[in-house]
Design a protein that fits this description.
99 residues; alpha+beta; five-stranded antiparallel β-sheet; 24% helix; 30% strand
């Protein structure tokens, strides 16, 4: 059964971000809290929605991931694209950064 992670957009600049285990946010999917099971997913999503109501983030939702060698891999096409940054003007997205 796939696990889930929570994503949203940072209200300040629109960046794609992922909810971390400490309740913060990261631009790196590798830092995301991973929910194994519906109860854990519900708890993470509730924490994200609280932050959305406070105006920190917008549009939080859960998405499926598979964890391979400790690294979450998005299972959906939309989420795979979101991890890379904009799909237009690829010279401006996070995919241009050297890691």
């Amino acid at each position: 059964m796939p696990s889930t992670a929570i994503t949203a957009n940072r209200l300040l600049d629109g960046a794609v971000i992922y909810l971390t285990a400490d309740g913060g946010w990261s631009e790196r999917l590798a830092d995301a809290a991973i929910a194994d099971g519906k109860d854990a997913e519900t708890d993470l999503l509730a924490a994200a929605e609280t932050q959305a109501r406070a105006g920190t983030v917008i549009g939080p939702y859960a998405f499926k991931v598979e964890v391979e060698a400790g690294t979450p891999i998005p299972l959906g096409r939309r989420e795979a694209i979101r991890t890379l940054g904009p799909s237009v003007r690829t010279d401006l997205g996070t995919q241009t950064a050297t890691h």
